[in-house]
Write a structure and sequence with these properties.
832 residues; alpha+beta; 5-stranded mixed β-sheet; 19 helices; 21% strand
């Protein structure tokens, strides 16, 4: 039996735990601490620093230490919450920038990494320390996330776990994990009747409130509320600002004092949870190495927290109201997260629920990790992680999916010595920085020897006796009644039938999940509070507007804003081909469901076509950029179609290559370069090709129609300019095209306007672009002009030029010009 690690991946601290002898036990890190600060840094010689090592290094080089990365994971750069989170970061924190795919990157040492990669490095270290402490390998994990995390953040955490070498068996919400801890802890279990429990989870970066019902063999989540940008880090920022005001309010980032002030604020916050006054000393300070001493009193902190405390109270009352509960209905308030130690927070809860109701018996710092370990002990089956596979309920004993052979165990990984991002063992080169990894091998933890209770053998390194095959501790729960340690996957004792005090929870969606319509609103597929996993259900009242010559785009969002889809969290998108053949309003039928990790699965049918599966892409590419890319793609396609006989091979190859990137972006797929740069470059290339084609055409018209009207030297210059443009187009030499086009346009604009207009009018008539009567008149004027040129009669030439000008005005609008390509792009579903 493979052991599963429970992980509380926190914003400020992370904790691991496992089921040992039937009870959840925290696994200490390599320094003997129960919690590891969620901080990463790079030392002076490029060594990876994790936890307290990184925080200590921050004093000397704050720009090399990453903290609070959980606030950025799974989000786009243009996300309003990302920009808000960046405002609260220390001034001298590592640089953060937009990545090539529109998400976020943070600098660690010499490399910019995604929040997923940074989290994978941290998870990899937690895995190593846990294996060392337990003496057992952990190739599966249950990882917790805030209840208010949207689906993109959940998927990003799962991806980080996969990179770290885990098969992520379950993503568990932190309040549910805390409820597990409440159910199995001594002094608080034994609840025989159904109890209403409120979990108040105030961590370093997020705030969650959950209303649960717990009873024998049952744990259900009734309602959720919270704030992904409210936590202890925000309290630190408030105290940091207060200390800066005491120091005169100037910018301290230039002299390296910003990190010391932030660290002093963090210490003061912790100390004020236990005492009324915190003494603060800052030294050295400033360029001259001075010092400053002062104090912060608890009333000052509580005044700073007034607005945050009000917001938390409003959230709690809202969760109660929506869950149809009163404060007196709540039998226990469970405190989770280090920030619940703040006296003002506890006092507000005791005022609302009563002092006896607020529980202090579960350690807020370890409750979530305990619960994750309990969840691992309750899990009885796994689902296949492959997107195309639908096999569910796979026994824990299986190493791979019986349907598609996808592994159900994490891969052995190695750490890249340059960027430190984990990579699978036997990878030739690091996928992030291309460092050679071919000589690296994964370390194997030293096994802990176990005694067999049946035959007495004492040197068993595994979960089953090497002599009699008797099962050793496999990770199940201990019965509080008879004391038997059960097999994993049971929620009732197999010996006496006793209740463990907790069970796999029925979980609910925190917010609405819906699909974007063509008017920008949201059609709700799963209302907030929906129990998941769900069965498939149909949505029949949608249509696709035909005749748009675009594609159908499915955009799924999670959040409260039903009038404006893009104010919510983007869950994923899918693009269905082109709809050129559709006419009128064609019925669109959807089938949707949520799986156990709140992932949206979608099937659709347009008109009477067959059902199709839609694999939603959780790309961080914003919907706005996707639409712009789709519009540009359509313009490229129309340009190539309009001038298919004139574009050179090099132009076609270059435009087709750009079209590939635009098509990928339009579908929500990522590309390997800056999105803004790609779109700007695509517009520039299309504009340049259009101008170059027009310049070559104008020069051709001028040289052919200007004989006798233009001086021979000017005609030669125009001919040379045209050849320069064409040579550049044949080679697709962008700079040469730009210069040659500008020269050709300059020559064209120097022509006498009357002559230029006459030449164009004659050319249009020769191309049959005018109606027959007007064409006949223009050609007659042409012949008369040529005769006048041949005779050298300037007065007759002027007369015919005036005549051609009049005919040009008369012909305005009587021929079909090649219009600017329309941006067809893609269409969204509409209400019937």
């Amino acid at each position: 039996m493979h052991r599963t690690l429970g992980i509380d991946l926190g914003t400020t601290n992370s904790v691991t735990a496992w089921m040992y002898n039937g009870e959840p036990v925290v696994l200490p890190n390599r320094h003997g601490d129960q919690a590891t600060p969620s901080a990463l840094g790079i030392g002076s010689r490029g060594a990876l620093l994790v936890g307290h090592e990184a925080l200590n290094w921050r004093k000397g080089d704050p720009g090399s230490v990453i903290t609070e990365v959980k606030r950025l994971i799974g989000r786009r750069w243009d996300d309003e919450l990302v920009q808000q989170a960046l405002k609260t970061r220390p001034q001298d924190a590592p640089p953060v920038r937009a990545s090539a795919d529109g998400s976020v990157e943070i600098r660690l040492g010499e490399h910019y990494l995604s929040p997923v990669q940074v989290s994978a490095i941290l998870l990899r270290r937690l895995k190593e320390d846990a294996e060392s402490a337990a003496g057992a390998p952990f190739r599966r994990a249950v990882i917790t996330v805030p209840a208010y995390f949207a689906e993109p953040q959940i998927d990003a955490v799962r991806e980080a776990g996969r990179l770290a070498g885990f098969h992520v068996a379950q993503i568990l919400t932190e309040p549910t994990a805390a409820a597990h801890a409440f159910g199995v802890r001594s002094g608080e279990n034994g609840t025989r009747d159904h109890a209403t429990v409120l979990v108040f989870d105030l961590g370093g970066g997020t705030f969650d409130v959950s209303l649960l019902t717990i009873g024998p063999g049952y744990c259900g989540v009734d309602n959720l509320g919270g704030d992904n940008l409210l936590g202890g880090a925000d309290f630190d920022a408030l105290l940091d600002g207060h200390l800066r005001e005491q120091l005169g309010g100037r910018d301290h980032s230039a002299d390296g004092d910003a990190s010391r002030i932030r660290a002093a604020a963090e210490r003061a916050k912790v100390e004020l949870s236990a005492r009324d006054v915190s003494e603060v000393t800052l030294a050295p300070l400033g360029r001259q190495g001075g010092s400053w001493s002062g104090e912060v009193r608890r009333p000052v902190l509580e005044k700073l927290l007034t607005e945050h405390l009000r917001r938390m109270r409003v959230t709690v009352e809202s969760v109660l109201k929506e869950g149809q509960a009163l404060p007196e209905d709540v039998q226990r308030v469970l405190l989770v997260g280090g920030s619940t130690h703040i006296p003002a927070v506890r006092r507000d809860l005791e005022d609302l629920f009563g002092e006896d109701t607020v529980s202090h018996t579960v350690d807020p710092m370890t409750a979530v990790a305990h619960g994750a370990a309990v969840e691992a002990g309750l899990l009885s089956t796994l689902d296949c992680p492959a997107e195309a596979c639908t096999v569910e309920g796979i026994p824990l004993t299986e190493d791979a999916c019986p349907g598609c052979a996808t592994p159900l165990l994490g891969t052995a990984t190695v750490d890249c010595p340059a960027c430190h991002v984990p990579a699978p063992e036997l990878t030739a080169a690091c996928p992030v920085c291309t460092t050679d990894l071919s000589g690296l091998r994964a370390a194997v933890p030293a096994p802990t020897r176990r005694e067999c209770p049946e035959c007495g053998r004492v040197d068993n390194p595994a979960t089953a006796c090497l002599d009699c095959d008797a099962p050793l501790d496999a990770g199940g729960l201990k019965c509080p009644g008879c004391g038997m340690v059960n097999a994993v996957g049971l929620s009732n004792c197999s010996n006496c039938g006793g209740d463990f005090g907790t069970a796999l929870a029925e979980q609910v969606t925190a917010q609405h999940i819906g699909i974007e319509l063509d008017d920008g609103t949201v059609e709700v597929l799963f209302p907030g509070g929906t129990l998941y996993p769900t069965e498939w259900h149909r949505v029949d009242d949608l249509v696709v507007r035909g005749g748009s010559e675009g594609s159908v785009r499915f955009q799924v969002w999670e959040g409260p804003h039903l009038r404006s889809a893009q104010r919510n969290e983007f869950c994923g998108g899918f693009v269905h081909g082109r709809t050129d053949s559709l006419r009128g309003d064609v019925p669109l039928t959807l089938q949707v469901r949520l799986d156990g990790d709140r992932t949206v699965e979608l099937q659709y049918r347009i008109g009477s076509d067959d059902w199709r599966g839609a694999r939603l892409r959780r790309s961080p590419v914003s919907a706005a950029i996707g639409r712009k890319a789709a519009e540009l793609h359509a313009r490229y396609a129309e340009f190539l179609a309009a001038w298919s006989q004139e574009v050179t091979h090099a132009e076609r190859d270059a435009l087709t290559e750009v079209m590939g990137d635009l098509e990928a972006l339009g579908k929500g797929e990522t590309v390997g370069r800056s999105l803004d740069g790609l779109l700007d470059s695509a517009r520039d290339i299309l504009e340049l090709c259009t101008k170059a084609r027009n310049a070559a055409a104008q020069a051709t018209v001028a040289t052919r129609g200007g004989r006798g009207l233009l001086p021979p030297p000017l005609l030669e210059e125009l001919r040379q300019a045209r050849e320069a443009v064409m040579d550049a187009r044949r080679a697709m030499d962008v700079e040469a095209m730009r210069a040659a086009t500008e020269r050709s346009e300059e020559l064209w604009t120097t022509l006498d306007p009357t002559v230029r207009r006459s030449i164009l009018t004659i050319r249009l008539a020769e191309q049959d672009s005018y109606p027959a009567p007007l064409r006949k008149e223009v050609l007659a004027a042409r012949d008369a002009l040529r005769d006048a040129v041949a005779r050298g009669d300037q007065a007759a030439q002027d007369t015919q030029l005036v005549r051609l000008g009049r005919l040009a005005e008369q012909g305005r609008g009587q021929f079909a010009e090649v219009s600017n390509p329309s941006a067809a792009g893609s269409v969204l579903p509409s209400k019937r």
